[in-house]
Amino acid sequence: MNQFKTSLMLGAAAIALPLAAGAQPAPRSAFDNFRLAPQQTVTGLYIGAGAGVNFLENSTLNSNNTLATGLAARGVAGRGQAIFEPGFVGVFSIGYGFGNGLRIEAEGNFRQNDIDKVGGFRGAGFTNTAGGMQRSYGAMANMLYDFRIPGVTWMVPYIGGGVGYVWRDMHGLSVSAPGGVSLRSSDIDGRFAYQAIGGAAFPIASVPGLAVTAEYRYLGTQPTDLNTRLVNTTNGRVIGGGTLRSSDNNHSVLVGLRYAFNQAPAPVPVAAVAAAPAPARTYLVFFDWDRADLTDRARQIIGDAATNARTVASTRIEVSGHADRTGTAAYNQRLSVRRAEAVAGELVRRGVARNEITIQGFGFDRPLVATAMGVREPQNRRVEIVLR
User: Fold this and answer.
1) How many domains are there within the chain?
2) Is there a domain that residue 270 lies in?
3) What is the pLDDT of residue 31?
4) Which of 11, 23, 85, 133 has minimal Cβ neighbours within 10 Å of its Cβ?
5) End-to-end Cα spacing for the chain
6) What is the pLDDT of residues 289-346, one digit of tens each?
7) Is the pTM of this model over 0.70?
8) pLDDT for the residue 39
9) Which residues does residue 224 pair with via DSSP β-bridges, in sequence order?
10) Are residues 186 and 316 in the same domain?
11) One domain for residues 80 and 133
12) Sequence-distant (≥ 6) Cβ neighbours of residue 384 within 8 angstroms
């Protein structure tokens, strides 16, 4: 029996292990099908169900009335303990998530544990052997909160608690007592109940809204009074009666599924598409020193200007010539006009109407780079094309 309990406890620990490791994000490859999009929370209606192992604490049994008197007459103290086998637990819930981590839900639950033995009753010939089982049925109202761990997207831990009402069904309790009698009880008593919940959800990315859950629950109730009879085992005659007052505290480990309706799919990252740059409206064409002829690079730039003039629906093209600060002002004025005329001629050759082009020369009066007189600055030997 102890070996069986140990195996169940190890199994429960294995189920609960992910909760303890919640702060350690697993490699993405290992949990690729269980990833959760960052900031995704339960919003709206959801349902859930779970099942697992239930460990019912020993229940103290206190007898009263003629039951206690009958036991005392046989030299048996009217106080003992019911010791239970590990059992089964199942829950079903329907709830609502507010989208900020907070959830409320209504829960129905069922638990069942077989009686291992009854101990503690002291008296000559009292064997402490027993049979029967205990079942409980409950309805709870719970409030829970989902947490976010920075950098962890494959699980969402949560805690919560609830209050409600649980009916305890002591079914077929039979305890042999000395003198050819036995304690027998088959009764149902309902009491106020409360519980604490801790768990984690592991969302399944391929099914939006669906998650595997693993959790621990502690359930406690007020003591229950179970009608009990003292029966003559020879003829079945009831020779005394009263109640056994019993406590009820459960520890449960469950795994389950939860489905949130109307849960939006995790957003798929979309690569940003760079907007096409707007066509340029200003172009610079540079010249060699004391020259007004066009280089291959200059013709390429003028070609771009001619093409974009049609793209931007230009109505006027200003072509302005400039020179560096070597030579006389009069010479550089004429040189800047010749450079502007060379550019305008290439624009016309590229399909721009001559009446759309205005030409002007500024000599060395408007340098792009300020220099002293006599300096051959390449960036000042230029023509500026402006699309209007």
Assistant:
1) 2
2) no
3) 39
4) 23
5) 95
6) 999 999 999 999 998 988 888 888 777 889 999 999 999 999 999 999 999 999 999 9
7) no
8) 42
9) 246
10) no
11) yes
12) 282, 283, 284, 285, 318, 319, 320, 322
